[in-house]
């Protein structure tokens, strides 16, 4: 079975228009792009696109044949549901409402949430309770819109494995709330990756493919910009495990552009490397 592989928007050169992103992703053989709405006000402004901008976006993806089924809503890192500041929490709720509205209109079916109760504040029992309250509300709104919310396994201890997500999932208890494992983050925290994937397989909406370097007593680890095959992720094991678990969902290659003229080459080489690993481990 040929894998459905997508590319993270931020892997592509920054200066591209959406039409150019679609064309490049198609040329590279990707099935989809994952949109980013992060801490950058320019990307957050997408949530306020007018009718013409939304129609242009939809036309671009249809004409290219490259889908945008998911959005990475990492803007909540700056405006988390768990913040002790009321105005910050209000912004978190507004971002969520706007993201659901945009997703519904342009065909995005899965919004990835950052698993941070807070990021730039100190975590506490209160921030965790506020976070759970916010996520519960967000899932209720997503259910009305028939849009999936999926939580990423993160680069901080708060949501560092699927077991921790399952503790939250038991509180939320909704078919519209899933998990979006990042195999790089899972590996960097010294998790038993096959066990964690097995625990969450019934609610995995997609898989992030990324290499990382592990946390140790002498290192904080490295959670991005680690070339595939040079980090701690055992991709053979990941693919074998998910094959055994009958995973048939999408795979998202998470990379970050350096805007140095070599991004397209790096993406093409990484995609070839991943596909080779998939063919040897997932199918055999």
Summarize the structure in short.
This protein is an alpha/beta fold. It is built from 10 helices and 10 strands.
Describe the SSE topology:
Layout: E1 5-8, H1 18-27, E2 32-36, H2 41-44, H3 51-64, E3 67-73, H4 86-106, E4 110-113, H5 125-145, E5 148-152, H6 162-172, E6 177-180, H7 183-188, H8 193-200, E7 206-209, E8 211-213, E9 222-226, H9 235-244, E10 250-253, H10 263-282
Parallel strand pairs: 1-2, 1-10, 2-3, 3-4, 4-5, 5-6, 7-10
Antiparallel strand pairs: 8-9
Give structural attributes:
two-stranded antiparallel ribbon; alpha/beta; TIM Barrel; 284 residues; single chain; 44% helix
Describe the structure.
There is one protein chain. The protein has 284 residues and is α/β, with parallel strands linked by helices. It has one domain (5-283): Divalent-metal-dependent TIM barrel enzymes (TIM Barrel), CATH 3.20.20.150. It is built from ten helices and ten strands. An eight-stranded parallel sheet has the order 6-5-4-3-2-1-10-7. α4 runs parallel beside α5 and α8 runs parallel beside α9. The chain starts with a strand and ends with a helix. The model has no long low-confidence stretch (mean pLDDT 96). It comes from Superficieibacter electus. Keywords: Isomerase. InterPro entries: L-Ru-5P_3-Epase, Sugar_Epim/Isomerase, Xyl_isomerase-like_sf, Xyl_isomerase-like_TIM-brl. Residues 22-275 form the Xylose isomerase-like TIM barrel domain. This is L-ribulose-5-phosphate 3-epimerase.
């Amino acid at each position: 079975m040929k894998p459905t592989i997508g590319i993270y928007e931020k892997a592509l050169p920054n200066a591209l228009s959406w039409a150019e992103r679609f064309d490049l992703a198609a040329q590279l053989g990707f099935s989809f792009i994952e949109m980013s709405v992060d801490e950058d006000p320019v990307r957050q402004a997408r949530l306020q696109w007018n009718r013409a901008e939304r129609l242009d976006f939809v036309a671009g993806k249809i004409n290219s044949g490259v889908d945008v089924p998911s959005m990475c809503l990492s803007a909540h890192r700056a405006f988390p549901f768990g913040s002790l500041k009321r105005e910050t929490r209000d912004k978190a709720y507004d971002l969520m409402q706007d993201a659901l509205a945009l997703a519904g209109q342009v065909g995005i079916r899965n919004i990835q949430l950052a698993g941070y109760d807070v990021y730039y504040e100190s975590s506490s029992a209160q921030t965790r309770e506020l976070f759970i309250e916010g996520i519960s509300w967000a899932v209720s709104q997503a259910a009305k819109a028939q849009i999936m919310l999926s939580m990423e396994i993160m680069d901080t201890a708060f949501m560092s494995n699927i077991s921790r997500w399952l503790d939250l999932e038991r509180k939320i208890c909704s078919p519209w709330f899933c998990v979006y494992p990042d195999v790089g983050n899972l590996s960097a925290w010294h998790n038993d990756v096959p066990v964690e994937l097995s625990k969450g397989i019934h609610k995995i909406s997609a898989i992030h493919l990324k290499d990382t370097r592990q946390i140790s007593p002498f290192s904080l680890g490295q959670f991005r910009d680690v070339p595939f095959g040079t980090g701690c992720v055992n991709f053979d094991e990941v693919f074998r495990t998910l094959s055994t678990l009958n995973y048939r969902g999408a795979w998202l290659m998470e990379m970050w552009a350096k805007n140095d003229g070599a991004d397209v080459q790096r993406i093409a080489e990484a995609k070839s490397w991943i596909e080779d690993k998939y063919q040897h481990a997932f199918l055999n």
